[in-house]
Amino acid sequence: MTGAASASAAQVGTSFSALGGSDWQLTLSVGNDGSLAEVTGFTVYFSETLYTNLALVSTPSTWNSLIIQPDRALAAPGFLDAYARTPQAGLRAGQVQSGFAVRFTYLGTGLPPGLPFEVVNPSFQPLSAGQSVAATSLIPETSTTVLMSLGLAALAGLGRRRLTANDQRSTASAAATAGAVHA
Q1: What is the mean pLDDT of the chain?
Q2: Pair (111, 169) in one structural domain
Q3: Which of residues 146 and 29 earns the better pLDDT score?
Q4: How many domains is the chain partitioned into structurally?
């Protein structure tokens, strides 16, 4: 129920759940795609024209999180800041951390869109930026590539099997026709 393009150093996966009326809950996961040695912090932005009443529901025990409300008067988005409490809690290549959740009131129509985010260093300086993706998209690319390759190989095998069966039927039919002509 979400989505958009990916980021260069991390992916932020989002899953939106309708709570009734205009209230929603967002569940977030962050993953390191290997472009950085470690992901120790990120910020997810909530447009001041689409979101209000942000509330932090949960954060993993090894991370600290902070919610800042959007401000329409200042034309400033709200945001979720999250950072690892210790260097060991940072995400190395291929690791994913889930368990971040935010409730909010959505001012738009339909499903909430993907959210912009930044990966930040311990001084909150941006290292990379991107757009959130559906949480199921945090599967490493190599797994997706392997599964697609296996599927294509299976289809190719099926195609060869059908061609061989058709060739055998054609050969048998031609032999039967040739036998009938000689008789």
Answers
A1: 80
A2: no
A3: 29
A4: 2
- Tell me which of 173 and 75 has the higher pLDDT: 75
Domain identity same for 78 and 124: yes
CA–CA separation, 112 vs 115, rounded Å?
Answer: 9
Tell me, yes or no, whether 18 and 83 share the same domain.
yes
Residue 123: the pLDDT is 84
CA-CA distances (angstroms) from residue 128 to 11, 26, 115? Answer: 10, 22, 14
Q: What is the pLDDT of residue 122?
A: 85
d(CA 163, CA 175): 18
Q: Is residue 135 part of a domain?
A: yes
Which are the contacts of 6, defined by CB distance < 8 A and separation ≥ 6? 33, 130, 131, 133, 137
pTM: 0.69
Residue 66, domain extent: 10-139
